[in-house]
Amino acid sequence: MKLSYDGGQLTRITGGFTFILMVGGFRTLFTDQVYWNVVVNDNRVTLEKKSIDKSVTFSDKHELRYQGNKIVERKIFEKANTPIIYTYEYNGDLLKEEQIYKDSQFLIQKSILL
Length: 114
Prior knowledge:
The protein is mainly β. The chain contains no helices and nine strands. It is globular.
């Protein structure tokens, strides 16, 4: 992976996974033809997956919300669907709990043993 910065701010992550059609299905391939645009705005970071090859498109988009130096919320957008929302709780600097929601519906809670 290659990280690109502008004025000390991360702007792009080069290198990512794509699927290659093969006989019998798809194969996952890590390539430098895939990159993530990174936009930082206050306490939010948006990542959008793209390809150097304009014929290859992705619908992957992630939004992260920070409090201090900890991610407290992550939204994953897939195609035009409602995002899957992950929320995180901490005990000091250690991750304590993850909760997952979709369409405002609670799906699952994962407790991390400390």
